[in-house]
């Protein structure tokens, strides 16, 4: 089953199946700014905060996602699969790169303005 | 014997998040052979061209990364004599009893100023499934997966790499075939160190956070095998980092990818033959892109930021 995942930082929405990780779906957006790391829950590059919706998560390296992070639904996009439509906020290293990506693409100007 | 003291990086213990996924990767993708699984859950593997009992140890843990790398030395005498020299240089040495790993004798261990644990050992049993010795065939049977022949080297990220160079070169008689200079001052951004004829046995990149692993490398025979490894990576949807490409530094032919816990692996072929009397090859900071990725001539972000 496919769900809609909204990246709040730039108001982009992408489809993501229950067999795909949030990162795999995001990679298919083709945004150059998405810094894909190890894709295995080890490096911590793809930190996101899930602000609404349900998902399943696989084991993530404790050195990059603390228990406190998990209680705030901060997870690694490469280790989570959606079970409903989701809203996520990109945090950490990805956030800066995504914003830069939004700014260099003219069609995203409105969403950049919305983010402020 | 002209080749004395430290022989090679012989053992590496890697932390993985899920052992079943890790076994599939290191056995079926890389082509290492499982030697044993012990009661504490650790799994021991080796490449087809290694005589020693094992070279890779997988340990399931809450965080991915490197537990330690252990260098094999040529004698028990060396192991005994090197310990006070390590202490005199300023590192605290601890002892790991024989049998802590199956088939391995006593080891000594210490932590570098970069935050990495290094061990030294001499005794290790010969593997049952070792390369031929008498009228040896080129290999005992066709290797699985990429057919990685041995654990070759590793790249560590951490602070104080200049101190690590001093330690390896002054205490353990390594030498430095190659380095990348920092843009300002006399320091190095990256150093390649060897105890042997290989262009590197261990390398370091200067980095704020101590004890980080950049990659563990395994040896392939040639460029064709690197290409076949790339095929296997795509067929099995293994997380690719970069390559196939070539390093300007060491001249190695390479592909980088990740194990299922995010530890970076490299399979590597070629590279020049190093000698301790050769000049140190140096790269300006402005040319580091070509040094690391010779064909792309630019570093990708992942090379400097994605670590376990």
TrEMBL record, chain A:
Under the heading Gene3D superfamilies, the entry gives:
3.10.20.30
Which residues are the signal sequence here? none
GO function term, MF aspect, one: 2 iron, 2 sulfur cluster binding
* Protein name per UniProt: 2Fe-2S iron-sulfur cluster-binding protein
Q: Name one Pfam family in it.
A: Fer2
Span of domain 2Fe-2S ferredoxin-type: 3-94
From TrEMBL, chain B:
Pfam family for this entry, one: Diox-like_N
The keyword Protein biosynthesis belongs to this UniProt entry's keyword annotation: no
Which keywords are on file for this protein? Aromatic hydrocarbons catabolism, Dioxygenase, Iron, Metal-binding, Oxidoreductase, Repeat
Assigned EC number: 1.13.11.2
Enzyme class, UniProt record, top EC level: oxidoreductase
Q: Which GO terms describe its molecular function?
A: catechol 2,3-dioxygenase activity; ferrous iron binding
* SUPFAM superfamilies in alphabetical order: Glyoxalase/Bleomycin resistance protein/Dihydroxybiphenyl dioxygenase
The family database entries (InterPro entries) matched by this protein are listed as: Catechol_2-3_dOase, Fosfomycin_Res_Enzymes, Glyas_Bleomycin-R_OHBP_Dase, Glyas_Fos-R_dOase_dom, VOC_core, Xdiol_ring_cleave_dOase_1/2, XylE-like_N
Task: Tell me which residues make up the VOC domain.
Answer: 8-123, 150-270
Q: Which reaction does it catalyse?
A: catechol + O2 = (2Z,4E)-2-hydroxy-6-oxohexa-2,4-dienoate + H(+)
Q: Which cofactor does it need?
A: Fe(2+)
Q: Which family does it belong to?
A: Belongs to the extradiol ring-cleavage dioxygenase family.
Subunit structure as annotated in this protein's UniProt entry: Homotetramer.
NCBIfam families listed in its UniProt record: catechol_2_3
The name this protein carries in UniProt is Metapyrocatechase
